[in-house]
Amino acid sequence: MANKTTYVCSACGAVAKKWSGQCEECGSWDTLQEQTAAEAAPKSLSASTKNVKSNALEFTDFAITGEPPVYRDSGINELDRVLGGGLVRGAAILVGGDPGIGKSTLLMQLVASCANSQLKTAYISGEESTTQLKLRAQRLNVSHAPVDLASATSVRDIITTFDKPNSVDVLIIDSIQTMYVDIIESSPGTITQVRASSFELIRMAKRRGITLFIVGHITKDGQIAGPKVMEHMVDTVLYFEGDRGYNYRILRSIKNRFGGTDEIGVFEMTGKGLQEVKNPSALFMSDTGEPTPGSAILASIEGTRPIMVETQALIADSFMASPRRAVVGWDTNRLAMVLAVIDSRSSLKVAGKEVYLNIAGGLKVNEPAADLAVAAAIISSTLGKALPNKCCFFGELGLSGDLRPVNHTDLRLKEAAKLGFNRAYIPASTKKISTRDIEVVSIKTINELVEMF
Fold first, then answer.
1. How would you label 390-427 residue by residue, b for 16+ Cβ within 10 Å and e otherwise?
2. Rounded-to-integer distance, Cα 130 and Cα 38, Å
3. Containing H/E element for 301?
């Protein structure tokens, strides 16, 4: 049978009939890789029914009978929060992140914690030898845990070992870019091998009820097939985020069939591994004491967790035709919209100024509720007046200059009151809530916020 050549984007998985410098789907450059596959089978399955045995499907209903509990505690509370409650039998979980961010460290601590809870665990590494794995376990003080370690890259060998009843409860594959299926000629790390290896491992996990964790590396140049090509195959996608300049790491849920998305877990990187952070708000607020111009506290929501975040703005005179806009931790387009609304709908003019915006601690905030806090920080820096001490902001800014309510108002206010805040500025259209622990100040328009200064 003749072979057919296609070109697959290593960044998004899109398929093209001919090579080009840029992927038409995601816009990435130099990411199309050649892939040769056999032509499709006959269109009609009935054409070869003599040699193919077909079986009728077996159906079941929603009722769960005779099975263990759906969720199992991993021993790491922050991880359980992100997963939606714990480990699920037969779940395939993809853990992505930049090299060296801490993926292998977290998963080593995970299997050790599960092993100490009487779960059968195995850690398969295609990048490190068993001696290196043992040295890392000693550094993390988890070498006493009864974890099965192996260095392997053949998917056939892994499936032969674990494709049996009660073989293992938690299985770690580190990483999927090093695995290969021997019936495919392409080298490990290519899109074909990543898809085939993932498919075989996930199918085994579903069949045997194994909680499968797959590590996927992300590279900037896109030469190695990253997790993007297999996100639709797994049940949960977790991204490990963090800035090398900070000690903390954020585990964020992007996709989760067994829980909510955009949930985060916060860890601190130490010499002995990752430590859970019980109060993340303390990481993202400065402890200088006296309020300074250009600083406003945002009562943010990450998934179901309220976090107090400091937004910092600096407004400076510009000597260029196009004033500079520098943003860290927020959407640049969103900042441009807020500046345009302030300039058009209030008495304050900031269009000709240079604007520098930073979310303290390196956290990335995506929700529109940050509009009011960002606007307050910009106004405070422009006028050179500090905001009142122990106050927070949240609300969405409309193009007409009005402020619109956001969700989870109660959670935001409770978190602010718990951390000692005594005043919260929120949109006036927010549904009335009863609270005694914190004063609520309602704001209708952006011009009203400017006039408060």
1. ebbbbbbbbeebbbbebebbeebbbbbbebebebbbbb
2. 38
3. strand 295-302
Q: What is the pLDDT of residue 65?
A: 65
Q: What is the DSSP code string of 243-296?
A: -TTSSEEEEEEEEETTS-SS-EEEEEEETTEEEE-S-GGGTSS---SS--TTEE
Identify which of 422, 410, 424, 305 has the alpha carbon closest to the alpha carbon of residue 372. 424
For 72-75, the CB contacts below 8 A with 24+ separation are: 72/119, 72/169, 72/211, 73/117, 74/110, 74/113, 74/114, 75/110, 75/113, 75/114, 75/116, 75/117
Residue with tokens 């005043």: 423
Q: How far apart are CA 211 and CA 162, in angstroms?
A: 12
Residue 186 near residue 224 (C-beta atoms within 8 A) = no
Spatial distance between the Cα atoms of 453 and 450, rounded to a whole number of angstroms: 6
Name the one residue in this structure whose structure tokens are 């009843």.
Answer: 165
Has this prediction a pTM greater than 0.70?
Answer: yes
- Which tokens sit at 118? 């009487």
pLDDT of residue 176: 92
Q: What is the distance between the alpha carbons of residues 408 and 100, in angstroms, rounded to a whole number?
A: 35
Q: Taking phi first (over 0 means left), then psi (-120 to 50 degrees means alpha), and beta for anything else, what does residue 318 get? A: beta
How far is residue 19 from each of residues 9, 23, 38, 68, 419, measured CA to CA in Å?
10, 9, 19, 50, 56
Tokens of residue 261, six digits: 């998305």
Q: How far apart are CA 106 and CA 101, in angstroms?
A: 10
Identity of the residue numbered 148: D
Q: How far is Cα of residue 191 from the mean position of the Cα atoms in its chain? A: 22
- What is the C-alpha separation between 309 and 321, in angstroms, rounded? 33
The model's pLDDT over 279-309, given as tens digits with 9 standing for 90+, comes to: 888 777 766 567 889 999 999 998 888 999 9
Residue 452 reports pLDDT greater than 80 = yes
**Cα dihedral sign, 230-232-234-237:** positive
Range scoring the smallest mean pLDDT among 10-14, 151-155, 371-375, 415-419:
10-14
Chain centroid to Cα 295, Å, comes to 27
Q: Which pLDDT does position 409 carry in this prediction?
A: 92
pLDDT at 263 over 50: yes
Q: Which neighbouring-strand residues pair with 256?
A: 236
pLDDT tens-digit series, residues 208-238: 999 999 998 775 543 344 556 788 899 999 9
